[in-house]
Every structure is written in C-alpha cells, then in structure tokens.
Specification:
The complex is a heterotrimer. By secondary structure, chain A is α/β, with parallel strands linked by helices. Chain A is built from 12 helices and 12 strands. The longest helix of chain A has 15 residues, at about 25-35. In chain A, about 65% of the residues are buried. Chain C is α/β, with parallel strands linked by helices. In chain C, helix 3 (about 90-100) packs across helix 13. The longest helix of chain C is centred in the C-terminal third of the chain and has 17 residues, at about 330-345. Chain C is globular and about 55 Å long. Classes of the chains: A alpha/beta, B mainly beta, C alpha/beta.
Chain lengths: ~350, ~300, ~375
C-alpha cells in the first residue's frame, strides 16, 4: 500500500457569523491557501473531494455552488460526500492508493449561522419514532451525558473540567471562536440547556471552511520537508437506535482506533472531535489514550464547531503539529451522527 | 295538471329498541370507545356480537376486547350519498372483519376516492366525537395508510455572498453588474468567487448592457406547481453585450412562435418604484428589432 | 492498483412511482439482500458499505446512512455516503470499486436509492430561496435550450428524440423491474403534448421509487460466482455549470471521462470494441448528444445512429437495454442502475434484454447542469 501524507492545511477563522460569504467565497480562499503553502495550484491536483451538507444552507445540491470556488478548467476529477470533510479526506486517501495520481485537494465548509442547527440535526434521527418527537442535538447528547453520570463513569465536574481545559487551550489558537480562562465552579453555575448539559459543555456554532492537500510517496516529500504520514485510518459505525446502544461507551471508535493502530506506539497528541464535553471522556477511553497524551491542543470542537468542517480541522490541527516537527505521532478523530454513532480515526506520523 | 294524482307522504317514527344483554353490552362499550366481541360455544369470536351464532347455538356471553381495526372483506363505493347515510361525501360500504374475529361487520369506510378501496385493505375505527351507545359511535372506518406525515419546518437565514450581493445591489439601481478576473479578461454575470479558468475571484466589477443576443431557448407549455406565468411562454439564454456567458431569463413582447436563436433582445424593466434586490426587476427580455446575430457569433456560448 | 475488482452480485427493486408498500429501510433491503444472494453472501460477509442517494431533502432525512446503517447490517463496519448530484449512483459505485482496487477492503456492498414519493420532487429541488430567481422554467427548462442548440448545431432530424423514446420504452417492456411498461408507436410519442419545446411529455423520464445494490469483491472472492463482471476502468470528471465559452452540448468533462475509462480498458475504438452501453438519458435527446460526447459517433452524427436504429437491442450498438432512465428514474439510484445493467450484460444475466455475447459494456451517469460525470467499463474478461 502506498504511503499518503497530509502536506498542508488551511482554515478560515471560526466565527459565529461570516456575513459576506457564500459557499464559493468560503472555499476559494481556503483551497488557494492550502495549495499555495506547498507551491502548487489546481492544475497540479489529481483528485478533489469535499464534504458538506445541504441542510446547513437549507438548499438541495448546495455543494454544486461550492465548485464555483474552484478553478475547474480543464475539467477535474472531483467527488463529494454528504459527510464531514474528514470523510472526504478518507475518500481522497483511497483514491491516492491507486497509484495513478499523486496529489489530492480536500476541503469542506459549514455555515452554522444560517440554520437552526439543533433542530436541523433532529433530521438525522429515525423518521418514524424519533424525528416526530423533535429530539434536538443537545437533548440527544444530554441523554448520553446523563447515562454516563448514572453509570458512575463521570460527573458533571468532569464535564466542566473538559470544557475549561479546551477553552484554555484555545487561547493559543487564533482560529478558535470561544476561548478563555474559565473556572470549573463558574461553569457549574450555568443553567442547564438540557440537563446535565450546560452551555459550556456544548459546542459553539461556527462558520468556517478548511482545506488539506494530500500527497503520496515521493510527491509528498517534494512538497514539504516533513509530511504527516497517514499510518493508519479507519472508520466504523454503530447501530442507529439510541435504545440499542450502550451510550456510555463507543465500540465503533474503539474498533476504528484498533484498525488504525492507535495503540501501536506512543501518542503525543490527539485531536478528538467531541462536540459535547462528555464525549471527550468517552472517546478517550475508547481510544485507550494514556494520561500524558495532549488532548485537543487547538481547543477542539468546544472552542470552534463549524459543522462538516470541525472534523477536517481536527485532522489539519493534528497534522500541523507533525508538519512543524512538534509531534512525532498524532491521532485525529472525527465523528458523525447522534451520540457518536460513526467515528473516523487516523494516526499521523513524521518520519 | 297531470292525469295521475300524487301527494307526498312521510312515514316516520322513532322506535324503542330493546337490546338484550349482548347487544346492550356491546353498544355500552362503544360509548367508552371500546370495541368488544363475543365468544361462541365453538370458540369463535363475533363482532358485532350476537346472542346466538348462525346455527342458532347460543353464544357464551363471554366478551373479549378487540383492537379497533380490521380487514375489508368486500366493499361498494357510494359516489352520491343519500340522506340517511352517515357521511355526506362519497364513501364505501364495506364488510369488515375486525382483527381477532371470525365474522364481519357492515360499516362505512371514509376513503375519499374509490381508487383507495381494495378488498383485503386494512382499516381502523374512527370514533364519533359524541357517542351515545349506538353503532354510529363508530363514525366510520378509515384506511390504515402505509405511510405517515413527516412534517419538517426549519427557519433559516439566507445571506448572499459578497459577489452576488454586488450583483443584487446593481439590480436595485437598474444596473447589471458583472465581474472579471483581469488575468482571464472574461466577464461573468453575476461576478464569481473564482474564475473557472484562473481560480481567482472575479473582483473587478463592470457594468454590462441590458441588451444582448438570445442564444438558445425553450417554449414552456407545461403547467407546474409554483409557476408564475401561464404557459406557453419562453425561457432562454441571453449573452448580454459586454458579458462572456449567458444568463437565463424570460423572453416576451413577441409571439412565442416568432422567437429565434440569434435574436437581439433588450431587458424590459419593471417600473422603477417597484425595484428590489432581485433579477425580477427585469420582467423579461424583448426583441430590439435589430437584425439577428449570425450563428457563428454566438455558437461558442451554446 | 493493488487488486482487481469484480461485480459478483446485483439486486434491484421493482421500480414504481410510489413504493408505499415498503419503508425506506425495507426498500434498500430488497436490493441489498438480492445482491447478496446473487453473490452467495450474507450481511456478515460484507467488509464495508458505500451508499449513494441524491439530495437528503427528497426523503427529509439528513445523512440517511446513519438511520439506514442497521438495515444494511452495518454496525461495526465502515459505511460511507457519496453525493454528487445526478451522477451519484455512478460515483458511489466508483468509490466502492476503489475500496477494493486499493486493497482497503475485499468485499464491499454498495447501495443507491431514492424514495421520491416521500416528498414532491419539484418542492425538494426548487425551494423558494430569497434573492434567487424564482422558479420559472421547471425541470426541463434548463435542458430544453441545450436540445435546441444541439438540433441546430447538428442539423438533427426532429424525430430523433421521439425515436429514442420509442426504443427505450420498447426495451423497458422487456425489463420486469422497469417502472414504465409502455408499448408506444412513433406516432403516439409524437402526438404527446409539448412540455418544454422541443421536449415532449413522452420524451421525459418518470419519477420513481427504487433501489439498486451491487457486491464488489477482489480476485480471491470473485471465484464465488462463475460469471464475475470485471471492472476494467472507472472515472469521474467535473466542470463548472457556467463559464465563458463552455460547450454545454458536448461538455469537455464528459469527453475526458470517457477517454479516461477507454484508456484504462485499452479501448481505442469504442464503437467496435464495446458491445453495449447504459447511458444516462433523462430526456430522450440526450442519447444522440451522449453518443457523440462518449465517442460512439462523430460530432454532429449521433442522431443518425439513433435514426438508423443502430442503438436498438439486436443492432450493432445497443444503448439502454434496460429501458434506461426513460423508463425508470429513482434519481439517487439511476446512475448505479446504469452501472449495474452494464455488469448484468457482461455477466450474461440480463434475461430478456440481454445482448447476445456481450463481453464489454459501459455504464454512464451525469448530474447537475451536464457537469458531473461518472463512468465505468466492465468486462467478462479479467
């Protein structure tokens, strides 16, 4: 199997409302930046793949408009997934394994500011038994958080500690939206949105876009000094029905981590896509991460959460540490669906 | 005057019906929205319940509660309801075998149209709003549909991007704004986040004319949901003078069978006081009367 | 490429305007279980699932693969969702084949579906959005001007579109899974009302509920069946909807996509080396346009092939043996139905619409404003 690496990463700062941008205007600058970083342009790209959802703008085929942010002449090899951009990266990785092309451009974009996101996400639920009840994303996650408390695996204080650490980490991230030095006691005084979740245990809503360039073998080495090699990558799903899952654990993340080889070496840092604070605890256990692993140095999804992009940003953030020589082995994770139904995990390594 | 004598006559009377133990119990249960059947000596269940079965053997007096749903065994469509019919719109009379029973009940099925009726179809009881212990406490049966309504209602904001905003603001002032990336020199209407050939934004804004060439078109003759105009009407691609790609709009002001490829057209604007930030400020494009453009001059835009 | 990929199982539903008799999971299970049975496999034998469907707004379920995971036995497995507009059924199969060819998985189940009757396609495709020009043209309004451009450029016989409709509907009569079973004469087709001049009602596709599934495997597992369809080439191409000087009638992206798959399969003369093709023809006039775009005819001469009857079953270049999109159109599945029919032909399992001795077949799909293309070539030979 060919070796494939992340060679560059660009993102737009996550903001609550990006006023003057449509899809194409989010995509154009961020894809250009990612390619410029390694001195190439669209003509040098063998395959382009993006991730997004029609339900953020509320418009069918919204990704077609995003193609208007690209140089697409001569015609390009291109594909799109109705999933987080990290899954587009997965498709591009598969495509590069073929051997006929050496580079791929991956991007995603998400404007949460247009949509009633918690209600939109109810549309991921079973249309017969759950959707009609209006189970919003916060309440769904809250059912999981309460189950975690009831099982004795975590307390509300643990959730608050996760939130405090992530937002403190975000102070060092110019692209994060919510950051600061908060105290655990302060957060525990916030009212519940859906118990036991308080506002700070939930992700912000962000507008952003991100792009990554992948390259294979020698091409990767030509483009950058220290590529972030994808040593293992895998994704797994769980049954859909919340009532047929143990919400306090994530067998799909555990399995994906095993397949990706997370436990095969020392992990320096992990970027976990845990939109809700308690989900970081579940993921940490599922991935078997040691206590000394730096979790979400970027501040994670609790500091910036552009739907469909937050997962790709985890991959970009993890890769950045490897590209910069600040980490030798990093784990990137992305989730999809209600209560961590579907999980994608990669191990990124320097030389 | 007819040779034959005739006069109206009404036979009308309200009887007092003794119900006996079995029927009384059944009807009393209906009052509470409960459907019951009675067991026969040989272990069958009858609904509606009777004191004896078809062979004359007494039923047991043992009642069983039933699911208020069943299967149509036979039916007839009544397109014009009569005065005494419980429903005043077309309906079906049907023989309905209630689940768990061995006979069938005569009742109505409110199905809207005969197409929805089928022997073997599933139906459920629709209870009358006011119940008083008669068989009409069952208002009728209704089809059990294999689908259910799934309403979605989501409130979004829409914010056009900066390039499209420039185009819309132009329309507000009666101008058609295009954009150009100087590297390519091609003018796009509306301006784009990226020129398809260079990948850079078409940030140099230029005003293009409201006249141009109709390159190709269709005559729309089909009525469809949400349509604003009455067919037939024309919808076509227009390359505006000063632009390098077509926009799509309505073509009018000329009998539709005289519309041609290559026809020179001009925007017909709404009265100024009605202008908004919308391409609908232009009602349609109409012929200018100039000679048609030669095919070769617009062939590359097809 | 690490591995060869073969299709060893194919399943589809009976397509109808409305499959009210089955739930959405029920619909896809019909196709998936049939494909698995054909491959002599069960859900537990599947390594990964790739699912494709057109906009989520058709069914009102966001990322339906999450909800449908259980129905496909996906728990504990990778499930992947592709969406590339009308070409999605094709690109989904392409992604599935790549998973096998790249050596990531050995046995992949791929499924595409649409249950259009859950909503109203016109509503789902054309919501009234502020600042956007309101709906004035309807479904065929964008494509009809292209037909007019084609007719003018090629000086095509005006009956060409009707001939395609007669031919595809005749083919559809042979396909028990097809939605429309219409025995129509040229006179009947021509007499149908004009909707979007030059497109008549009889020259448009229906709107269907349906699903299709395929099992794709590597060399090792291809032995499970005696007649695998080997994937000899796959390609996707995209260009933008509008740009200066764009040839919308004969888009470059389609030409390049075709050239790419032919090169991979070692085909230099598609007309003589390919036995039959299933191509995406939602409006009848697209047949002559795509014949030229895909290199089966010289530019400007595609309509002659159709008029001469060369694209009928039994003739030298049968096109849309299943009846094609003109008979069956569950949008998200339509592209994969084309790919699956190509595979059925080279496996020799196309029953009454089998092309005798078909060895090499093309599956083709397109989407958007003739801008997203996906193709594959399958062969009975490895």
């Amino acid at each position: 199997m060919r070796n494939v690496a992340i060679v560059s990463f660009a993102q737009l700062p996550s903001v609550r409302v990006s006023h003057a941008t449509d899809e194409a205007e989010l995509v154009q600058p961020v894809t250009s930046q990612a390619m410029n970083q390694v001195g190439i342009n669209q003509d040098d790209i063998g395959f382009t793949c993006s991730g997004s959802t029609d339900y953020l703008p509320g418009r069918p085929f919204s990704f077609v408009a995003a193609v208007d942010g690209l140089k697409a002449w001569p015609p390009i090899r291109e594909s799109h997934v109705e999933m987080d951009g990290a899954f587009a990266l997965y498709e591009a990785w598969v495509r590069l394994l073929h051997g006929d092309i050496d580079t791929a451009l991956v991007f995603s974009f998400g404007k949460c500011s247009l949509a009633p996101v918690p209600d939109v996400l109810n549309l991921q639920n079973d249309p017969y038994y759950v959707q009609p009840l209006g189970l919003d994303s916060i309440s769904a996650a809250a059912l999981q958080a309460q189950a975690l408390i009831d099982s004795g695996k975590a307390t509300e204080r643990d959730f608050a500690e996760v939130a405090v650490r992530n937002r403190k980490n975000a102070l060092a991230n110019p692209n994060a939206q919510i950051k600061g030095n908060f105290s655990v006691d302060e957060l525990l005084k916030e009212p519940y949105l859906s118990s036991p979740l308080r506002k700070s245990f939930c992700p912000p809503l962000s507008d952003s876009a991100a792009a990554i360039v992948l390259a294979a073998g020698d091409a990767a080495k030509k483009l950058t000094k220290r590529p972030a090699w994808i040593r293992g990558i895998d994704h797994r799903t769980e049954p859909h029905s919340l009532g047929q899952r143990d919400l306090t654990s994530s067998p799909s993340a555990k399995l994906a981590a095993e397949k990706a080889g997370v436990g095969d070496g020392k992990v320096d840092l992990a970027e976990l896509h845990a939109p809700f604070a308690h989900q970081e605890l579940i993921l940490r256990e599922a991935l078997g991460l040691a206590d000394d692993v730096s979790i979400n140095p970027s501040g994670g999804a609790l500091a910036a959460n552009s739907l469909m992009t937050a997962g790709l940003i985890r991959f970009g953030e993890a890769a950045s540490h490897v590209l910069a020589g600040k980490a030798d082995r990093a784990v990137a994770h992305t989730t999809n669906g209600v209560c961590l139904q579907h999980n994608l995990i990669a191990v990124l390594e320097g030389e | 005057m007819s040779d034959f004598l005739s006069a109206p006559y009404v036979l009308e009377y309200t009887y007092t019906r003794s119900t006996g133990p079995v029927i009384a119990r059944f009807l009393e249960s209906l009052r509470y929205g409960v459907l019951e059947g009675v067991k026969t000596a040989d272990g069958r269940v009858l609904c509606p319940p009777l004191e004896y079965d078809e062979a004359g053997t007494a039923t047991t007096g043992e009642f069983v509660q039933l699911r208020p749903a069943g299967t149509v065994k036979s039916w007839t469509w009544v397109p014009k309801p009569r005065k005494g019919h419980p429903l005043d719109r077309p309906f079906a009379f049907a023989l309905i075998q209630i689940d768990g029973t061995d006979n069938a009940m005569v009742h109505l099925v409110d199905a809207e149209k005969p197409k929805r009726m089928k022997t073997g179809m599933r139906v459920r009881v629709r209870w009358a709003e006011e119940r008083n212990g008669t068989i009409r406490d069952i208002a009728c049966f209704e089809p059990v549909l294999p689908y259910l309504p799934g309403p979605v209602h989501l409130q979004y904001d829409v914010r056009p991007g900066q390039h499209y905003t420039a185009f819309l603001k132009g329309l507000e002032e009666g101008k058609l704004i295009g954009g150009c990336d100087p590297q390519s020199g091609k003018v796009y209407v509306p301006p784009r986040a990226a020129d398809p050939v260079t990948g850079d934004p078409t940030s140099e804004y230029v005003e293009v004319a409201d006249t141009g060439v109709l390159t190709t078109f269709t005559i729309i003759r089909i009525p469809f949901e949400g349509q604003k105009l009455k067919p037939p009407y024309c919808f076509g691609a227009i390359v505006l003078d000063g632009a390098d790609m077509p926009i799509y709009h309505l073509i009018s002001g000329v009998p539709y069978d005289q519309i041609r490829m290559g026809m020179r057209v001009k925007a017909k604007w709404k009265p100024r006081e009605q202008w908004e930030t919308s391409l609908e400020n232009i009602l349609y494009f109409e012929p200018t009367g100039e000679p048609d453009a030669p095919f070769e001059s617009y062939e590359e835009h097809l | 490429m690490a591995e060869q990929c073969a299709v060893i199982g194919i399943g589809q539903t009976k397509h109808r305007e409305s499959r009210r008799d089955v739930s959405m999971p029920g619909l896809i299970r019909i196709a998936a279980l049939q494909a698995l049975e054909d491959a002599d496999m069960a859900f537990e034998d599947v390594d990964a699932i790739v699912i494709g469907t057109a906009p989520d707004m058709f069914e009102g379920i966001m990322m339906p693969e999450l909800f449908l995971a259980d129905a496909l036995g996906a728990a504990g497995k990778p499930i992947f969702r592709v969406h590339t507009a009308g070409s999605v059924g094709g690109s989904t199969a392409v992604v599935a084949s790549h998973l096998v060819q790249a050596g990531v998985h050995e046995k992949v189940l791929t499924v595409a579906f649409e249950k259009q009757s859950e909503s109203n396609a016109m509503w789902a495709l054309s919501p009234a959005i502020p600042f956007q020009p309101q709906l004035v043209a309807g479904a065929g309004g964008y494509f009809a001007p292209l037909m007019r451009s084609y007719i003018r450029r090629a000086d095509a016989h005006p009956d060409t579109g009707c001939m395609v409709a007669v031919k595809d509907r005749a083919h559809g009569m042979l396909n028990p899974y097809a939605h429309l079973h219409l025995d129509q004469s040229l006179e009947e087709v021509k007499a149908a009302p004009m909707l979007w001049d030059p497109i008549r009602y009889s020259e448009t596709c229906p709107s269907s509920d349906g699903a299709v599934a395929m099992v794709l495997v590597d060399d090792k597992h291809a032995k499970r069946v005696k007649n695998p369809a080997w994937v000899r080439g796959t390609s996707v191409r995209t260009e933008r909807t509008f740009f200066a000087g764009r040839d919308q009638v004969n888009p470059r992206a389609g030409q390049q996509c075709a050239k790419d798959v032919y090169d991979q399969a070692g085909i230099t003369n598609p007309l003589s080396e390919i036995d039959c093709a299933e191509i995406y023809v939602p409006f009848s006039w697209f047949e002559p346009m795509w014949l030229e775009n895909l290199g089966f005819a010289e530019e400007g001469l595609g309509w002659k092939m159709t008029m001469e009857g060369q694209t009928k079953l039994g003739a030298n270049m049968p096109i849309n043996m299943s009846g094609g999109v003109m008979c069956t159109n569950p949008i998200g599945a339509s592209g994969m139905l084309r790919f699956a029919e190509a595979a059925r032909q080279v496996r020799g399992t196309a029953d009454k619409h089998q092309v005798d001795g078909a060895k090499v077949a093309v599956g083709h799909a397109y989407g958007g404003g003739s801008q997203f293309f996906a193709m594959w070539i399958v062969s009975s030979e490895r």
